[in-house]
Design a protein that fits this description.
This protein is mainly alpha-helical and 200 residues long. Helices cover 76% and strands 0% of the residues.
């Protein structure tokens, strides 16, 4: 690896980190990676692996900011949030595959914001995001025969991108409005099993 390539990877990582602290309407990370790969001949796999790792770091910062600022927004649902937080703490191994699947197509900012607000463990979510986005971004960049400002603009402000942003916001709002305590206890009554809010 040349010094120039290393410097470009550092620059790409800084851009990826900064982009992912912002929750909405930024260009998808893969379009920026495509620019670096096509325009500056940065190797594909180092570009996608390092950029998504740095992007995940930005999402972690977003989650921590949300953890600090988001609780007052849902103060009326504090009991539900505390119950859900305790449940996620006990089932943290399931967070990685769930985050992996979610990150394939949906905007991940809302996932990290929700995780921050409810106090979810972030390690599994970060790893699920990183592995999912590294794989999908590699495929997307491979499919981008050209990379230009038009590609970045269309991918961030085109109809499909705006619809996906809307879906992400909707899932976030639904997530925050779900009466978790009531739903979890209904699962107990229906299945006759151990209360998931207390089970290990």
């Amino acid at each position: 690896m040349t010094v120039e390539t290393f410097e470009l990877l550092v620059l790409l990582s800084l851009i990826a980190f900064t982009m992912n602290v912002v929750p909405v309407l930024g260009p998808p990370l893969w379009t920026v990676v495509a620019l670096f790969v096509v325009q500056f001949d940065v190797p594909l796999f180092p570009a996608t692996i390092t950029s998504t790792a740095a992007g995940g770091g930005g999402r972690i910062v977003l989650a921590l900011i949300s953890r600090r600022l988001g609780r007052p927004v849902i103060r009326a649902q504090q009991r539900d949030v505390d119950e859900l937080s305790a449940l996620l703490q006990r089932h943290r191994r399931r967070l990685l595959p769930a985050a992996f699947v979610y990150s394939v197509a949906l905007p991940t900012s809302w996932m990290f914001i929700a995780a921050g607000i409810v106090g979810s463990p972030l390690r599994g979510i970060y790893l699920g995001y990183w592995w999912s986005r590294a794989a999908t971004d590699t495929v997307l960049v491979l499919g981008a025969r050209t990379a230009s400002e038009e590609l970045v603009r269309d991918a961030s402000l085109g109809p499909v991108a705006l619809v996906m942003q809307g879906v992400g916001i909707l899932t976030f709002l639904i997530f925050l409005r779900v009466p978790w305590v009531r739903w979890l206890h209904r699962v107990v009554v229906k299945n006759g099993g151990e209360d998931p809010t207390t089970a290990v």
